From TrEMBL:
Keyword field contains Membrane: yes
Residues in OmpA-like domain copies: 400-520
PANTHER family xrefs: PERIPLASMIC PHOSPHATE BINDING COMPONENT OF PHOSPHATE ABC TRANSPORTER, PHOSPHATE-BINDING PROTEIN PSTS
Xref: Pfam families: OmpA, PBP_like_2
Protein's organism: Rhodophyticola porphyridii
UniProt keyword annotations, A-Z: Membrane, Signal
Family matches, as InterPro entries: OmpA-like, OmpA-like_sf, PBP_domain, Phosphate_ABC_transporter
SUPFAM superfamilies cross-referenced by the UniProt entry: OmpA-like, Periplasmic binding protein-like II
Gene3D superfamilies documented for this protein: OmpA-like domain, Periplasmic binding protein-like II
Protein name: Cell envelope biogenesis protein OmpA
PROSITE patterns recorded: OMPA_2 (PS51123)
Signal peptide region: 1-24
Amino acid sequence: MHAWLRAAFGAAFFGITGLSPAVAQDVTLRSLDGSIELDGSLIGFDGEFYRVDTIYGPLTVNAEGVACAGPGCPDLESFVAEARFAGASVIADRLMPALIEGFARARGMTVSRALAPDGRSVFTLTRSVDGTTAARFTLIPGTTDSGFEALLNRDADLALALREPSPVERDAARLADQGDLGLSQRARVLAIDGLVAVVSPENPLRDIALSDLARVFAGEITNWALLGGGDAPISLHLMRDDSGLAQGFANRVLLPARLGLGPGIIRHTTQADLAGAVARDPYAIGITSYAGLGNARALALGGPCGFNQAASAASLKAEDYPLTAPLFVYTPARRMPRLVREFLSFFESQAAERVIRRAGFVNQSILRTPVSGQGDRLANAIAAAGPEITLEDLQRLSARISDSQRLSPTFRFAPGTTDLDPQSRSSVSRLARAIEQGQFDGQRLIFVGFSDGAGDAATNLRLARGRAETARRAVMEAANAADLNRVQLRVDAFGEAMPMACDDTEWGRAVNRRVEVWLE
């Protein structure tokens, strides 16, 4: 078999099948030396690869290696990359338009926007040099639910989501021949947000335990006096039940407490409406996003042990805040056109980070925090110390942290596993790119493992060190273009010695299981 045809078989085998829809027409693909021809019906073309139904089955062939003849052959010069994004309106309406415009500027293109009656927006990217159309991106605002549904039904190419897919959605994707939505390469983190409990600026409350927050929305706590406030009924505000925010709150706050929503909750269609209503009512409390605070004020979250954590850019980047919520884009189980793939890669650029920050979201740029800016971490370590954490342990911890800066990338794991969560996988990529760019040349990066307090201290210390080594290896493998002789990557561990949250709840233990990165 000719080499280019063997390559076509290989490409098809590895799943490079994502060509844009086209009317099936007869084509003949001829190798450039004319020695072999392949006849078939054109299924699609993505600007780089033909997808052809042949006597060998569907094959994917690189357009650079063949000449195309026949009525189905596309015009290679006038190919327009197209992609449809559907899902959470906060992403489709606020963030994606800004990212599209930023990407176009970086590529020397202009953008025009057309609004359709059904709420869709079509962005046309035009090359400034010759006025030709390079791409059309369609945004279909809705909910996370509708985004996954559109992806599975092939009504959209990419889903915009405020949560990970549910087991039901993952099963539906496999049944629809859409692959496994749970695979790490299917999800990209656009930006970082967080679920926050908000009150009016006139409300004296400053923090609330997650357990109390669950009981408030379950209708078990109905008066502010039970939370340390005045004698007044609590008014509840929440987004509509098909929104990612409402679903995230139910899954992450109510479900662990084995509670459901109580009666009398005022529902909102937009975060702006919710924040405005809460800000005007001193007896109201609502759940919105960090990016959607508006004039309302966010409460710090805490637990019975007294450790509180407020939502901030630093705590969200590091996932120290317990209700951190990444903004996802989920890709199809097929190859997208090159310009679409380049747009997805743009999300990790410095230009995109500026766009994300201006849009009100938290980007994933790397922060460096000296010990003086790390709040009560050492005080928490001392307060939580028990018989298994010795004075010598605390002294070693204090000595090491005092000479270091904490970097914002932090790696977290499921209980008893070394599986990184989606935001942590994104942090691997960010840190690896920074190492490749030489940002830490001549310095030492320490991957420092911590654990929760469940179990004995010695076992937790071993688990923490193992997770730190896992994170270090993941970053080294991702930084394959780096000269690792120019930076030292080391491992240390302190087990349960420095908790970030109360260890008597599952969410607190999840926050405490982490690998931090310290710069020396």
